[in-house]
Specification:
Blueprint (H helix, E strand, L loop, with lengths): L4 H136 L4 H14 L3 H13 L4 E5 L5 H15 L5 E5 L6 E6 L2 E6 H20 L20
Parallel strand pairs: 1-2
Antiparallel strand pairs: 1-3, 3-4
Helix pairs in contact: 2-4
């Protein structure tokens, strides 16, 4: 069999040309498309992995923030509970203090009312005693009670002891205003002159004096100057009497001491047969 080398060579050349054309225009584009697709798939996978990692990171952060939020909520709740308890305690203390203060004020008001009533009774008693004493002295003697008070006051001025006299004399020297003689009655001219003479003789100087009436003294007369005072009134005796009566009432109000119980005597033991 004869071989046609020209035909073989032509066919080989055609085959090579076909291979080159297929490689140039078919195989390389397919490989390039495959490479591009692989790259795109790899990029998509990498992007998916990155998004997954980011999502996991965000999930972890959310869990962390959620835990922190729970902790903050618990801390705020605990703080609010503590503050509420403290405020409740404070309000209770304030209410208790206000109640105690109100009770104290009520007790103080009652004491003040009792004291006012007590003072009113004392003043009324003093006035009644003064009226009775003045009427009794007027009926039994030829001089009025007011004149007798002036005489007693003058005698007391002359009988001042050394210490009281010295202190009152210093007060008279330092006083810039006249000494004031206050009395429950209008002192007559004769008694004013007697009081003036007694002061001049007692303190060996001419003492300036101003006379005033003061009904609140309740049957009395007093001399004041520069913070010093000397005087006499029935109120002094009534105050002493009142003090004695108060002490007597306090003694009566004291509970009687209960006798101590006697120790029980031991019982004799029972005899055995």
């Amino acid at each position: 069999m004869l071989i046609d080398w020209f035909t073989v060579g032509a066919q080989a050349l055609n085959f090579l040309i076909l291979v080159w054309l297929m490689k140039r225009f078919l195989y390389k584009p397919i490989l390039h498309a495959i490479d591009e697709r692989e790259k795109r798939i790899a990029a998509e996978l990498a992007d998916a992995a990155a998004k997954k990692a980011e999502a996991q990171k965000e999930h972890d952060e959310f869990q962390k923030k959620n835990a922190e939020f729970d902790q903050q909520c618990a801390a705020l709740l605990s703080k609010a509970t503590g503050e509420a308890q403290a405020e409740r305690q404070r309000l209770l203390e304030e209410a208790r203090t206000a109640a105690v203060a109100l009770s104290s004020k009520q007790q103080e008001a009652l004491k003040n009312e009792e004291h006012t009533l007590h003072q009113a009774i004392i003043r009324r008693t003093q006035q009644e005693v003064f009226a009775i004493a003045r009427k009794a002295l007027t009926d039994l003697a030829t001089t009025s009670l007011e004149e007798r008070l002036g005489e007693v006051f003058t005698r007391r001025l002359r009988e001042m002891d050394g210490k009281a006299k010295e202190g009152f004399g210093e007060a008279l020297k330092k006083a810039s205003e006249p000494a004031v003689v206050r009395s429950t009655f209008d002192v007559p001219a004769e008694q004013r002159a007697a009081i003036q003479n007694a002061l001049n003789e007692t303190f060996s100087a001419v003492v300036r004096v101003r006379f005033e009436t003061a009904p609140d003294l309740i049957s009395g007369i007093e001399l004041t100057t520069n913070g010093q005072k000397v005087g006499w009134s029935i109120a002094d005796y009534l105050a002493s009497l009142e003090k004695g009566v108060d002490e007597l009432l306090k003694e009566k109000d004291k509970p009687e001491a209960q006798p101590e119980p006697k120790p029980e005597e031991p019982k004799p033991a029972a005899k055995t047969q």
